[in-house]
Write a structure and sequence with these properties.
The complex is a heterodimer. Chain A is α/β, with parallel strands linked by helices. Chain A is built from 8 helices and 10 strands. Chain A starts with a strand and ends with a strand. In chain B, the strands form 4 sheets. In chain B, strands 4-5-9-6-8-7 form a 6-stranded mixed barrel. Chain B starts with a helix and ends in an 11-residue tail after the last helix. Classes of the chains: A alpha/beta, B alpha+beta.
Chain lengths: 232, 407
């Protein structure tokens, strides 16, 4: 689903320069990989680069989807429009705070990415996901009326509503208590497997990652910054 | 490409839902607009009402358009024609020497009006403004005071008499005239009859010694071919703005005039001054309005940075964000204008009776034409669009990646 080799990203200049290096990452359909490491090590930077939000210094090898679309070439061609299209069509983002729009109901929030892509608002997959996550009774409520756990589950459904190839989640359980975090992780991994997407989840919650026996990319500090390697 | 209108509709819906969700904030921004627009509408309505009323008062009295020639000379028919054909002339007719423009009028009941003024008239005479008839042949129109003294009504028959002394003999010529109408009292104060200019010429010739079949006198010279000469002209400008040019044109021909140019210039000066004051106030208010709306609007965008970033992340392009921002600003401006219009209408209905009741003025009322309202609306919208433009510039800098970063 996702194949990456030698991704280099640098941030800042001079003595504030910080480099993030990802030697290799392969994600198959239905697979969830956790990116773990201490705060400030560059997990979010990595996620932004993979999410096409941050230009890498050297894209190396970067393909996405069953058709293995060559994203490294799009970066080299500096084709911002094509990158934005790939980002909104083939990727789903789940934000730390949910990122739900406060003025839309849960139903409209979930429908938004589909509508922006010109798809029908309703889809069997979305209905199934809402059912599985227990969101069906909450669909007409505004985000403000939901608990944080409910909000994160809604944000998860919104992230996968348009059936992207890759789900990128940034600390989705950070604001949740351990129990709610475990529950969210459970449904997320189950649905990603069921829907045959690939997911990259940034988390600093090692226990949770261990509990679900997720494959891990672990940060290790280098002289220049940070490097992410697959954990043994 | 059917995606585009659908997408635009979606963005508009999002903009409205956002405004409605934050209705308190939207109301604040809208109210700050209303606070500027409503008083400006009222002020402008009042200014326009005052100026219109002053102008109407001038226009309603034909004497204000009149340019009276003080210099007496001899003008031929061509000169009068040239005058009539000037675009700044509303009405012109030749006058005889003033001594000859008098006659006695009496009716069968022996009611006399000695030395009534005879005023040459024709179709289009401003004194006849509301009347459908005009003096022609032996038809005359009486001034109110003349009609009163003669107890004459429309349709009555009168006798017009002029005296002359020819070769030491006193002669009296008479003719029957028909009263066509009477003027309103305010039109002309003195006893007078408006009379066909050709009839008046005939009277003058009779006085000058000609024989006149019309007046029933056969003695005197038979000189039918001598050219017509006028001593002056009754002259009206086509409108208020034309008076000054007409006066100058006559002065260039060394003709002294008397007119109400000073009054007209007074009204114009008042109109100009009020216009200037209004523009100054409006400009100040608009700048303030622009600043306050821009401040509130930009702060609002900054506050909702994360939301805009999420929209960008979900695939909304910059054009979409621009549409979102412009739609919100325009919607608030339109709402504000409608509210201000309502307030204006309300205060105008409360205000106008008070103005009517005040001793100072009789007819002043706040008033605005549809075109002026349209201009006011366009101005409001352009303020909103200017603010939206600043907002768009701000929102354009919001990157989708910002949605991932915590503030």
């Amino acid at each position: 689903m996702l194949s990456l080799r030698d991704l280099y990203i640098t941030r800042g200049r001079g003595h504030e320069r910080y480099a993030v290096h990802l030697p290799e990452l392969r994600l198959d359909a239905g697979e969830v990989v956790a990116v773990v490491g201490p705060s400030g090590c560059g997990k979010s930077t990595l996620l932004e680069a993979i999410g096409l939000l941050l230009e890498p210094d050297r894209p190396g090898h970067f393909t996405l989807g069953r058709q293995k679309q060559d994203l490294a070439r799009l970066w080299q061609q500096d084709d911002a429009a094509a990158l934005a299209t790939v980002r909104s069509r083939d990727m789903g983002f789940m934000l730390q705070n949910g990122g739900l729009l406060p003025y839309l109901s849960v139903r409209d929030n979930i429908a938004l990415p589909r509508q922006l892509l010109g798809l029908t608002a309703k889809s069997a997959r979305v209905d199934h996901a809402c059912e599985t996550l227990g969101l069906t009774p909450l669909l007409d409520k505004r985000p403000a009326a939901l608990s944080i756990g409910e909000r994160q589950r809604s944000a998860f459904v919104r992230a996968i509503a348009h059936e992207p190839a890759l789900l990128l989640a940034d600390e989705p359980t950070a604001a949740l208590d351990p129990h709610a975090g475990a529950r969210l992780f459970g449904v997320m991994t189950a649905l990603v497997q069921e829907l045959e997407m690939a997911a990259l989840v940034v988390s600093h919650d090692r226990e949770l990652v261990a509990e679900f026996a997720l494959r891990r990319m672990v940060a290790s500090l280098t002289t220049e910054g940070c490097r992410f390697d697959a954990a043994p | 490409m059917t995606l585009l209108p659908k997408r635009a509709a979606l963005i508009l819906r999002l903009a409205v839902q956002d405004l409605w969700h934050e209705r308190k904030m939207s109301l604040c921004i809208t109210a700050s607009l209303v606070a500027v627009i409503a008083p400006l509408l009222l002020l402008f309505g009042l200014k326009h009402g005052v100026v219109t009323q002053l102008q109407n008062e001038l226009l309603n009295d034909p004497r204000n358009m009149e340019v009276r020639m003080l210099t007496t000379a001899s003008y031929d028919a061509d000169w009068i024609h040239a005058l009539q054909n000037r675009p700044d002339v509303g009405f012109a007719v030749g006058k005889t020497r003033s001594l000859n423009a008098q006659a006695d009028l009496y009716n069968d009941e022996r009611r006399f009006l000695d030395n009534a003024e005879l005023i040459p008239s024709a179709s289009g005479d401003p004194l006849l403004q509301d009347l459908t008839v005009f003096p022609q042949g032996n038809g005359v129109v009486l001034s109110a005071s003349a009609a009163r003294q003669l107890k004459a009504e429309a349709g009555d028959s009168l006798t017009l008499a002029v005296n002359r002394r020819l070769n030491g003999e006193r002669e009296r010529g008479t003719m029957k005239v028909q009263v066509l109408q009477r003027l309103a009292p305010s039109r002309f104060p003195r006893p007078a009859a408006l009379i066909d200019v050709d009839t008046l010429i005939e009277l003058e010739r009779f006085r000058d010694g000609d024989a006149s079949r019309l007046l029933g006198v056969t003695t005197g010279a038979e000189r039918d071919d001598h050219p017509v000469h006028y001593s002056r002209a009754r002259l009206y400008a086509s409108d208020m703005d034309a008076v000054e040019g007409l006066v100058k044109a006559l002065e260039a021909q060394h003709i002294n005039t008397d007119s109400r140019l000073a009054d007209i210039q007074n009204v114009k000066a008042i109109s100009r001054m009020l216009g200037l004051i209004f523009r100054l106030i409006a400009l100040t208010a608009l700048i303030g309005c622009l600043a306050s709306m821009a401040g509130a609007f930009l702060a609002n965008i900054d506050r909702k940075r994360q939301q805009y970033a999420v929209l960008r992340l979900l695939g909304l392009h910059r054009a979409g964000i621009a549409l979102h921002v412009v739609a919100q600003a325009s919607l608030m401006a339109i709402t504000a204008f409608i509210a201000a219009l309502g307030l204006y209408a309300l205060s105008a209905t409360l205000f106008n009776p008070l103005l009517r009741a005040s001793d100072m003025t009789t007819h002043i009322a706040t008033h605005m034409t549809p075109l002026q309202l349209l201009v006011a609306f366009a101005l409001t919208l352009s303020v909103a669009l200017l603010v939206a433009l600043l907002g768009v510039a701000r929102a354009f800098r919001i990157q989708p990646a910002e949605s991932l970063r915590e503030i």
